[in-house]
Amino acid sequence: MRLLHSDNSSIVILTQAGQPCIRYIGPRLASTVTESELRCILSEPLPNGALDDRPQISVASTYADPTFMEPALKILCQGRHWAPQFQLQDESGSAEHIEYRLLDPKTGLLLVWRLGVCAENDVFTLDCQFENTGADPIAIVQWLTTLPIPKAMSAVKAFTGRWVHEFQPQDCSIPLGVLEFKNIKGRSSHDHFPGLLIADAQLNEHSGSCFGFHLGWSGNHCQRVERSQNGLTQYQAGIELMPGELELTPGGRFQAAPLYFTHTEQGLGGIAQNFQRFVRAEILRFPSDRPRPVHINTWEAIYFDHRQSELDALAAAAQDCGIERFVLDDGWFTARRNDRAGLGDWVVDTEVYPDGLHPLKDTLAAHQLSFGLWFEPEMVNKDSNLFRQHPDWLLQLDDLTQSSGRNQWVLDISRAEVTDYLFNQIDTLLREYPIEYIKWDMNRDLSQAGNGQGRPVYHRYVTSLYDLLARLRAAHPSVEIESCASGGGRMDYGILRHTQRFWLSDCNDANERQTMQQWAGLFFPSEVLGSHVGPDKSHTTSRSHALAVRAGTALFGHMGVEWDVREASGADREALTHFIGLYKELRGHIHSGIRRPLQTPDKHQIGFTVAYQDGLLVSVFQQTMPELATPGPLLLPMLDPQARYRLRILIQPEHANHLMKQPPDWLVAENLELSGELLLRCGLALPVLDPESLLVLQLDRVPD
């Protein structure tokens, strides 16, 4: 028997018929648990009409297992070995990990299955590596890291979406059968985020037993939840392999994508706490410890209209508002006057910038703005010097018609000469200019992703991307990289090991962003979620919001501005400057605190808190018309009942008199101190809010 404990959870593995099987995942067990007692109470009846052995889900199930469920591993060797049966060769363990070495004697396929734990954050990591120790090639058809799920779990919350509409929750019941979420778009995708939740029927923001899963992979993937008539339930996740994509020659190895998972009895808030802390401790690495600077991105301000005078004026206006970083978006390189030409030619367009980017560099220095630059290295236009010189560098299959995406095609970065070219082009610019930030974009999905020999390279594409990013980070350790993929099309822990920021969506509409940020916050801390203040009228939805709503939404991510602030009125500039100042005041709390979903009294509200050392930030966004005439009290469970808190109203609707004859007393009181116990037990009576309006509060602990 092997046990692995986090601070609040335990995993127990028993060996049955020579196979390691996870028999318990859940709340932490006492260390005095005995194997004999556990086997006794877990031994289930063997029903009539079934095989003569009790089926159990092993850590490496195959077609040789008697569960009649989807196997973790599918292989083919010599056209006849397709049902491997592993034998346990060795096992080891410590307080931080458990490792099994399993060998299939017929094929020589060795599996090293390793379970690690970050105890203080209650997150477990499953790493699996295969090695062909035999004499014949072995085709790996499928590996899905597999975990048994307790029968009490009945609900699945997955996350779907599309361009400008990312991170939309999708609630399902676990059926007798299969739920499958499969992505074959070559990147993590908008459609199926590589993570989900499995919970009991009592799940809410603050309570309920819940498992959170995330596959750390930036390409094709599959997630499955299966429940069988035999009483077993399993979750599976892994890289989705194309036919013939992965063959292990003798001595060859395959590293599966890591699976991260956590368990909590504290509902959605517990999942958010565990994953956010884990990412900060184990995944995320910033070039420095300075506060996250406020961006201005030029895309929605100028699009392809790059003129030095316009950029100078935009930089001056940005400085006046307190902005700290200037990101020059698409349009600065050769022939890039529209989206039909230039990709691949990462050289400054001397027709637009006759002196290169040096005048812009000087402008930014004069306005105390750091320099960021947009790239889309993985892509190429056919109207480019690169394509004319190397038409064979595309991902393509001979004699097949392939669709373009945004007038562009994908480079085969599995080829060393392609990644060498890209590294050299980017490296040259980073050495010539004081660029401290790269916006790394990817604006199309992969299709027909074959190499020059016609073999699929979706898997090698992702590992080659990781290698290229690691190479650039090693050469330029002070440069920060953002992962953008038509917005949030490539968001996962795999890419986050090489980057420091996500562009969550190309949509800056505050209403849409509130939903996206709420659910993305279950898996990612606020400081990696780029969130920008857009113009009054959204460029993607044509919806308008008050500046306080736009800024109050961006406040809780890594704040930026996607707006031509030169055109803003004096009052709007003054207000934007105020909100940027508020972000600077609070970013230390927001980027170190834990964001948790908050159960609100009105089902049409999105609420959350950010808990920091001595206080709490509270946000309530009213999406649509309130359900009732008076919303009711907002309970604040993260407060210390023994403490008192000083209330500060940071953002409230500017015009709300038409909704209330009289507002709640606390909304108009000054220098108000409140009991933590009363706020926790009785709550704070909310005002009536207009649709698409925002209330943001701060509660600071009063010193004893």
TrEMBL record:
Any Gene Ontology biological process: carbohydrate catabolic process
The reaction(s) this protein catalyses: Hydrolysis of terminal, non-reducing alpha-D-galactose residues in alpha-D-galactosides, including galactose oligosaccharides, galactomannans and galactolipids
Enzyme class, broadest EC rank: hydrolase
Active site: D441 (nucleophile), D506 (proton donor)
Stretches assigned to the Glycosyl hydrolase family 36 N-terminal domain: 18-247
E.C. designation(s): 3.2.1.22
Gene Ontology MF terms: alpha-galactosidase activity
Keywords: Glycosidase, Hydrolase
Highest taxon listed in the record's lineage: Bacteria
Protein name as it appears in the record: Alpha-galactosidase
